[in-house]
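Chapter summary example.
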Amino acid sequence: MPIIPKNNEEKNKKVVCTLNDLEKRKVVEHNALIQSVAKMQKTALKMFELAVSCIDTENLPENNTVYLSKKELFSFFEVSSSSKHSQFKEAIEFMQKQAYFKIKEEKNKGYEMTSIVPIPTVKWNSYNDDVMIQFNQFIMPYLINLKAEFTQYKISELQKLNSKYSIILYRWLSMNYNQYEHYSVKGGRRAEQVEAYRNPSISVKELREITDTINEYTRFQSFENRVLKNAIEEINAHTSFNVTYEKVKKGRSIDSIVFHIEKKRMADDNSEYYKQEEQDPVYLENKADREAKQKMLFAEAMQSPYTKLLGEKWLINVADMQDISTMTGLAEKVYPLYDELKEARGLKGVETHLSYVASKQEGYSKRNVVKYLKTAIEGYLPTVALQDLEQPERANTKKPKPRTLEEVAKDFLPEYENITTETEKEELRQMKAEIDKKLRGEGLDHE
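The structure predicted for these 447 residues follows.
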């Protein structure tokens, strides 16, 4: 099954790529290219992505060349002004003279850096509608014959994005969510690893690198407002993702960003790929096991006193309690930690903790309540352990009082009165009497 729908009827025949089947066309790129630094403006980056979507992986383009329609190109960029031709010319010139990818890949025991101008040749004329785009031969390995570590997404997802940062961040989020979907179906990763793909973390330094803002918006607040917030708003408004994020501090500075990705329900979610997967007996067996485990965890969660406490503190709502993934996540990842706190502080201690957590909750955390609650309790338990060492009186008063050494020793000392015979008792009395005499000085020979 081809990754990208065919747009060639005959191999090596010139075919002009149109946007009639835009929803079916996909961009497929190696993850190294997704994580590279795109040294280019928004228009050049979108034009590159559009050209990539025209590559047919079963009938590779001759001379690394694809053809687009100027009319469709302007339509994709929603350009209708009289200056559209001059704008197009400026974008092409910039793309060829200044735009390039800086690709960083692990090789042997270090890194290999490659700078590639992705599209060195673009040709068009005044007498027809065709635009010829020829890819650099060095960019092609990142676009074709990809067996692993690649990301794919619909080119239509990028059409409404009007910021370079939105496009870059969308590609990076897609890379992670693609892996979440893959390992959720195929297995091969632990549950927490799979969840990490849906809630990916990136350092602020790395985020600045891929958005090419190392020397721009030096104050984090400016970076957040100009790069991060605007990009997330555009992605949520115009793509199939709903994304929130949280800032993670190291000391007094923001060290990293954790994104939380949800997929909007789309009409074509039941794709041919998943229909084929669901015929696999191994997949069906694993799916049945997962569903059985989910049902068990869901039942445990609904009967747990912690669920009642979370509801009372407005940390979860009715919708959460009806969501299987949320409740199983709580039962599996959060409630065992609450058991530890209950052991140390009693149920009242858990309630006090949840009151504090509720008072500190922000809007973004409500989108991923399991992760929020897990992070909160993981951060609190070491404090509880330290308090119990320094102030033992704070520990759970319901715990049994430790037994004294004498009390423990009685478990191991024989009950002589019960196991000694009368004859042995008489012999012991006589021995005691002899010892008493000697202690008094009686029965000893004097010089």
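To summarize the output: The chain has 17 helices and twelve strands.
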